[in-house]
Each structure stands twice: as C-alpha cells, then as structure tokens.
Design goal:
The chain is mainly alpha-helical and 225 residues long. It has one domain (16-224): Orthogonal Bundle (MetI-like fold), CATH 1.10.3720. The protein is 80% helix and 0% strand. It contains 10 helices and no strands. It has helices spanning 2-12, 14-47, 53-62, 68-79, 94-130, 135-145, 147-162, 166-172, 182-192, 195-224.
Length: 225
Amino acid sequence: MDDYASLSAALASGELWQIIALSLTVSLSATAVAAILGLPLGVALAIWYFPGRHFLILAANALLGLPPAVVGLALYLLLSGSGPLGFLGLLFTPGAMVLAQAVLALPIVTALAHRAAEDLWAGYGDALMDLGANKLRAVPALIAMGRLSMLTAALAGFGRTVSEVGAILVIGGNIAGYTRTMTTAIVLETSKGDLPLALGLGLVLIGLTVMISAAAFGLAGRSSA
C-alpha cells in the first residue's frame, strides 16, 4: 500500500512532469537533428558513387552499436573547460545531451535510410532520371517515395535517444530540475531503492514511446492513402 501511495504521489508531482518534458524535448530534438542529417546522407550514399563511399557505408553500419558511455566521455573531453570546445559552455546542459543523443542516433538513421534508398533507387532510379531529375533532386524524391521506411529509420533513432542513459549521464550530470531525464532518474531511484518510482517512470517511458511511434505511423499512413 505504501508503495502504491508513493507511486501515485510521484506521478502527481510537478517534478515528474518536468522530467518527462525534458526527456521528450531532448530526445525529439536529437532525433530531428539525426533525421535532418542522416536521411539525406543515407539516400546520397545509395545513389552517388565517389571515393570513400564504401568507407562511409561501412562506418555507418559499424557505428550502430556505438557505446554510449564512450560517446559521453569523448564529448566530455571536447566540451570540458580544458577541451577544444569548452568555450561553448555546453557541458552539463540540455544542449550537450541533444548533441550526445544525436551522435548516437545518426548512424542508425543513416544506415537504415541507405538500405531503403538502395531498393528504391534500383526500382525507380531510371524512371526518375528519364523524367529529368538529376541525382541531387532524386534525394528528396526518394525520401518522399519511401517515407514509411524513412519514418521507420527516424523512429529507430528516436528509440535509441529516448532510452539512452550512459552518454547523457556523463555529459549532462543528472542535475535535478535541469538535466535529469526519465532514464537517468530511473537509474537514480533504483540505486536509492525507490523501486515503485523507478517502475512508474519506466511505465511512463514505455507508454510515451509507443504513443509517439503509433502517432507517427498513423500520420504517415494518412499521407500515403
């Protein structure tokens, strides 16, 4: 009963909703950055042939399992006061967390977009060129044609960002009211032994992820109807 009361109180608290809002803001912003960069890059790698292309494709796929803690450490060294980018003052800010999550999501979005675009280019590339589109114009055309596949790539990136702990813990510091997200709060509350609150945060995280994914696919389905 006490556990239930603790969970109910936590779900009704303003602090929890602040954590949820920050988590969604950071994760959606990072996903947007990764999609804006990764979708065109993945499509371009599918239709253009240039020196270093195979290396970039290999790198995108090899970095799918990029260790978050290593990314956090690398960014910490770059953004710390003694680092080359320390003058930006981003360390332990939501901006640094967006950067870390975008770095982790970018290879996923790029690799999945590349695979989808390869199939589209093989099937429709000649038709696009016959219609007068050059390869530069073909990039947005293929993104539009394969929007469900591209959405899947973006949502895979979102799944990586919203579930991320290690990098944002290092680069954000888990500061209450400023850089504490649902995932870092789950780690903190579990370590404190507050399992009901940690479980509640986990359920909220799962629910939000499912709702955002369902809404995105619903909108994409309407646009393709």
